[in-house]
Amino acid sequence: MSARGATKEAILTTSINLFNQYGFENVTINQICQEINVTKTAFYYHFKSKDELISEFFSFDNLVSNDDLLNILAVTDLAEQAIKAMEIFVKHIVRSGVEMTKENYRVHLRNQILPLDKSKSALLGSIIPALLQRAKDAGQIKNPASAEELLDTMCNLANGVILNWAMTGGSFDILEETRKRFEILLVVK
């Protein structure tokens, strides 16, 4: 990994740790830079703001690991593959915790962008719709809506469930709830 890549990853990791420890609003860019001994110039080379840093941390494509891909590909049912692909983001939300999730939504509301934006994600923009279409063609999804409409609705459902989970302090099993909602939408059972 290049020095620039290492610095970007170090800034991201350190920032998230500081945000979790002290709260997003209480951490300054100066603190982040001091913690990992980088200049503000180095910080701004990689991120324009703390908001951009949060968006990067929750970026759908940055969340996909090789294990996630293997987990998706291990399933032969195409509808299940699409659901597992969507669950990648939900699992990251759980790992990030309620407070970071709230901050993610605050940042996205402040910047008027969607947390699950298919125009900024190869997985959301092309792979999941292709899986949904193939599952429809195979008769595994009974909902007559187009693959694009199904994906848009899955993103909206996930955002709603995630927001509800964050607002209730993580009081329910978010993975179970999103899966249930996806299965109802896709009419897979």
TrEMBL record:
Highest taxon above the source species: Bacteria
Pfam family name, one: TetR_N
InterPro entries in alphabetical order: DNA-bd_HTH_TetR-type_CS, Homeodomain-like_sf, HTH-type_Tx_Regulator, HTH_TetR, Tet_transcr_reg_TetR-rel_C_sf
Gene3D superfamilies: Tetracycline Repressor, domain 2
Record keywords: DNA-binding
The HTH tetR-type domain, residue ranges: 5-65
Record feature DNA-binding region, as residue ranges: 28-47
Protein name: HTH tetR-type domain-containing protein
